[in-house]
Design goal:
Blueprint lengths: L2 E4 L4 H15 L3 E4 L13 H18 L5 E12 L2 E12 L4 E5 L3 E2 L2 H8 L4 H9 L9 H6 L6 H12 L16
Parallel strand pairs: 1-2, 1-3
Antiparallel strand pairs: 3-4, 4-5, 4-6
Length: 180
């Protein structure tokens, strides 16, 4: 059975990986392990989020030779003239080569949350302070809080996982033809 391992012990990331893999492949062995991101605790900008997700995915492949796909999910924020937005990137790296990459949607953070993040606080902690929560980053996350539970963090991440897997089910359209 094909094995996917996400480089995080956050249950939200494991749930998102499981949901995306099931939608794309059906049955698979989906696991989690701690993996360093190599980026700041609060990644800012697409490049830093991609770098963190890539580091996690590659770390998994090096640490677990029996894993077919290493997966990194890295959430963060980015500044636009309209304000601070939250989003995440997913990297799926195949053991034989080839990398799939996709991002989530993006949503505008409330000014008070953005202000705390700009002052150096991690988004999850800023959400906890502003919304009176505890450890929301391993629960509903900012997206779940702001949508009043209509979209939780795992549901928000799942399309990015699914889209990062696209290159592995369409190998004829990618230069290295590496995939499932």
């Amino acid at each position: 059975m094909t094995r996917f391992t996400v480089g995080s012990l956050n249950p939200i990331k494991l749930e998102a990986l499981r949901a995306g893999v099931v939608q794309m492949f059906g049955a698979a062995d989906v696991r989690a392990m701690a993996a360093p991101s190599g980026v700041s605790v609060q990644p800012i900008g697409d490049e830093e989020m991609i770098a963190g997700a890539m580091q996690r995915a590659q770390f998994v492949l090096q640490a677990l030779p029996d894993t077919d796909y290493g997966v990194g999910l890295e959430g963060g924020v980015l500044e636009l003239k309209e304000g601070m937005f939250a989003c995440a990137w997913c990297v799926v790296a195949h053991c034989a080569g080839g990398v799939g990459l996709a991002s989530t949607g993006r949503f505008l953070l409330p000014p008070r949350v953005a202000e705390l993040v700009r002052s150096g606080m991690e988004l999850g902690h800023a959400d906890d302070v502003v919304f009176g929560r505890t450890n929301s980053k391993q629960a509903e996350g900012a997206v779940g809080i702001l949508t009043h539970g209509r979209l939780n963090r795992a549901q928000f991440y799942t399309p990015a996982v699914l889209l990062a897997l696209v290159r592995f089910v369409n190998t004829e359209h990618y230069a290295d033809n590496t995939g499932a």
